[in-house]
Amino acid sequence: MKKQMLLVAILAALSAQAGAAVPEKAAAETVLKPQPGQAQAAVWASRVLTKLHYKSMPLDDAMSEKIFDRYFKSLDSEKLFFTQADLDQYAIVRTRLDDAINGENLSVPFAIYNLYQQRFNERIAYARELLKTKPDFSLDDSYQYDREKADWVKTDAEMKELWRKRVKNDWLRLKLAGKDDKGIRETLDKRYENYISRSRKLTNEDVFQIFMNAYAMSIEPHTNYLGPRASENFDIAMRLSLEGIGCVLQTRDEYTVVREVVPGSPAGLSGKIKVGDKILGVAKDDSSPMTEVLGWRIDDVVALIRGPKDSTVRLDILPVDAGVDGKHTQVSLVRKKISMEEQSAKKSILEVKDGTAKRRIGVISLPTFYQDFEASRKGDKDYKSATRDVARLLGELKKEKVDNVLIDLRNNGGGSLAEAVQLTGLFIDKGPVVQQRNSDNKIEVESDTNPGMAWDGPMGVLINRGSASASEIFAAAIQDYGRGVIIGEPSFGKGTVQTIFGLDRFSQNAQVHYGELKMTIAQFFRINGGTTQLRGVTPDIKLPTMGDSDTFGESSYDNALPWTSIKPAVYIPAGELKEILPLLDKKHEARVAKDKDFQYLAEDIALVKKQRKDNLISLNEAVRRKERDAQEARAKLREARLLSTTPGADDPVLIPDPKDALNKAISAKPANGKPAPSPKVAAVKGALRTDDGLQGDERSLTAELDAEKAAKAAKDVLLNEAVHILADEVGLLKTDTRMASRVLPYAVDVNK
């Protein structure tokens, strides 16, 4: 009780101190306060975390200090708004945030947020004032663009100097892109105004979630608090479906704009909604009035549009080809179940020349390990599942007589553990796949119990730094069984198990929702006894490393669990790759040594690493123009090669999918009498686009979508090399029966 009284007294003093310095305009801003139920949600979350977490830690003064530091960094990760004086002002509560949670008094974290909002408004107001002057680009200024690891700025004078350089850099980028001073001022003033507009849309639910995540992630990096809306979006991501109309939306200049229309969805089938249309109003059903949504947060608009299957939603639309004062149209749509096919498994076939022979390599891209848990629990025979989709694709690849299969898990951040186990089962007969150890040191083995394989031929797995969790379980199991070649760069290193724990079970009021915890409850171990934690999966054949382990991956976290090992599981290797891997690696090294695309890639990686290490950008116009000219010259050298109509002798050739041929033919029809540019030309233009100084929502929607298409069409150097490696494997296995009998002892006849 005494602690709580002291905390309240401290807060009152801090509020008075802060209020004395608040400008009149800033004081008029909305002050956010905790919602009813949030303090109780925080208490119940703390009780669950201290008792059930794999790395249970008490909520005490030591934890309070960690929460304090992480909360300030969460609000201001680049240290552009708070000064050290702001942190010092709240230093008295540094060890008392545990008391705030236990005492159900969240006034302090909300007061810190309100100070952040005040500072945010002040900094942006100063930036807009700077636009009335003109920077001097002849000076030898420089700007540190990545400030995550920088010290907090000590004084307001130093903060103003930092913002002077930031605005100067924004101005110079636009100047180098060809904008005049008037256009630059208009662009930047609107940009900074949009910053303020977006920040004002943050709610007390957002603030509570930021604070609770500062607590949860102070225990361990992969523990999170999910507010009610975040929880709903997490469920949608796992099942890859939702009930709605089938539009991907985004905010542009306070408007909600249609970015994509999902084929086969209610919106797509209606023909009444087009990319670029603006949604001005939404009526959630036939009887509800139209609600104007201009200036709304995108997630609020989405929540209004979503609804039960077979219900009706009405939209007030400003068509893309109408002016600001153009005629609106009213569209009624019946909501249906929408499948997010973009995140589903997909296949392609690439053909590679190997001497006089041609090798057909089937590639299956899997962006996430998804499963519709609810549909599965209800007994739905056709529930959405990564394993089911991959099994179907493998069946199709068999019919198309591919020689090898590559599972592309790049940037697959994981998902369902059950799916990782079942997917592994498609490539092994049966046996253990992964081990788990909980906080009681109890070890459980997750196994594939279904005999037989969906694919018994040679295979490989392509990974990168973005391959995490379930991706690492699958890749590690394939590697430990000797079942396939792991290609790429070391993976993320996330070897922990999370579960969702609903906090609503503690609520005394059905109308008050406490949200959920995504909480670490166990650690993964490979069947060989090691863990993927921290170190990740090391590929058998390494490709150039694109990421930075200091800023991305498990090793970048200051409180990650350490690497350790346990007793190996009992398993029988499916193959032996020790003899073939050096041969594949030798062929790989010889090929990339003379591959111009790889040389370009190496140049790009070296340049990025140098820029990352320097972490400084010149604000001198002459220096920047010289750098820009060098970049454009380098791009032009590549353009002739990339635009060549004659593919390289070793370039893999994409085998067209007959099912896609009609769609591609339709999409390739000339628009307005002008022939559409070839995917290769579009890819080159996208790849060689120089810095235009703009942010995403400042470009036209058409330009953004064209750039995305170009990026997808661009040559994937790493995928092509992985395909070459698997083609080499096929050639070696076909010419050496003894080696084939070791790599594929259950399917020696690789010529079948």
UniProtKB/TrEMBL annotation:
GO molecular function: endopeptidase activity; serine-type peptidase activity
Sorted UniProt keywords: Coiled coil, Hydrolase, Protease, Serine protease, Signal
Classification via CDD domains: cpPDZ_CPP-like, Peptidase_S41_CPP
SMART domains in UniProt: PDZ, TSPc
PDZ domain: residues covered: 235-306
InterPro entries with a match to the protein in the record: ClpP/crotonase-like_dom_sf, PDZ, PDZ_sf, Peptidase_S41A, Tail-specific_protease, Tail_Prtase_C, TSP_N
Signal peptide: 1-20
Pfam families: DUF3340, PDZ, Peptidase_S41, TSP_NTD
Biological processes annotated in GO: proteolysis; signal transduction
GO cellular component: outer membrane-bounded periplasmic space
UniProt feature coiled coil, ranges: 616-643
NCBIfam families: prc
Family affiliation: Belongs to the peptidase S41A family.
Protein name: Tail-specific protease
